[in-house]
Design brief:
single chain
Length: 285
């Protein structure tokens, strides 16, 4: 009885998207933070250029600067990936974009989102994970990302662990495809199940990006059956790549998890949407 109630509420409160809006999401494998390694740091321009060269989709992380801009960087602190230290949000975009990424080549500085969009230029699909914390206001970064996406011609989606991000794009920029990133963290209680549905209903996402360690998942499978594409992260081994193949529609992968995709990944350009279907322009996370 409870399962039936969840099914009905899912359909009502988080309806599935139209297939032609999200079909492009499932046509490629995504390089997690770009195709990094071997002299190309994660979330670096060189890692994104390599992914484009191989015909792989790209997943990247964005967070807010002190002056309200969006820069592409994963960690909250600068210490691990640069020669600087301290929180990203304490510096301006101009200051951050002068910082070299550790282990990178010349030009591998922290990129602003605009630089990444110009580099990708619609040639491969792009997933933008918007970083958030519970105590943070999400609106300033959502606005910064939306401004950068204005006029972008190419398949792009935003996503976040924070349901407020997807909800904001649903309300204020509904043409942008939006996703909810989820992990079950081994929690299988009724309360955990209810919380997953509450997050889904609040986010109203077009797709899910699910922790590969949780697959197969009854919750994820149910959303996939009713029309939400299911992406999965982070695929780091051939074994996890096989799990992703069996239980999801596309993998967000790195290292050994990318090997099968690199071997025979077709150029996305041969199956990409027409300009009228591009997701970064008005017409759709």
């Amino acid at each position: 009885m409870l399962s039936l109630l969840f099914i009905l509420l899912d359909r009502w409160l988080a309806p599935a998207p139209a297939a032609d809006r999200v079909g492009w999401l499932t046509r490629t494998t995504y390089a997690h933070r770009g195709l990094h390694g071997g002299g190309a740091p994660e979330n670096a321009p060189s890692a994104f250029a390599l992914a484009v060269e191989r015909g792989l989709g790209i997943e990247c992380d964005v967070q807010r600067t002190s002056d309200g801009q969006a820069v592409v960087f994963h960690d909250w602190e600068l210490d691990r990936l640069t020669g600087a230290s301290g929180p990203v949000i304490d510096r301006s975009a101009a200051q951050l974009q002068t910082l070299a990424l550790a282990g990178g080549s010349e030009g591998d500085t922290i990129p602003g989102l605009r630089r990444v969009l110009e580099l990708v230029a619609g040639r491969v699909p792009l997933l933008i994970e918007i970083k958030s914390k519970r105590q943070m206001h999400v609106v300033p970064l959502c606005l910064a990302v939306r401004r950068m996406l204005e006029g972008y011609r190419g398949p792009v989606a935003v996503m976040s662990f924070d349901p407020r991000v997807s909800r904001w794009f649903d309300r204020h920029s509904s043409h942008v495809v939006r996703g909810l990133v989820m992990t079950e963290d081994g929690r299988s209680t009724l309360l955990a199940r209810v919380r997953r549905h509450l997050a889904l209903w609040h986010a109203r996402p077009d797709f899910l990006a699910y922790d590969v360690r949780d697959l197969p998942s009854r919750f994820a499978a149910a959303q996939r059956r009713r029309g939400l594409p299911l992406l999965t992260w982070t695929v780091r081994s051939p074994e996890l790549a096989e799990r992703a193949h069996d239980h999801a529609d596309a993998a967000i992968a790195e290292g050994a998890g990318l090997a099968p995709s690199i071997a025979f990944s077709p150029s996305f350009a041969r199956s990409s949407p027409s300009p009228s279907q591009s997701q970064g322009q008005p017409e759709p996370a």
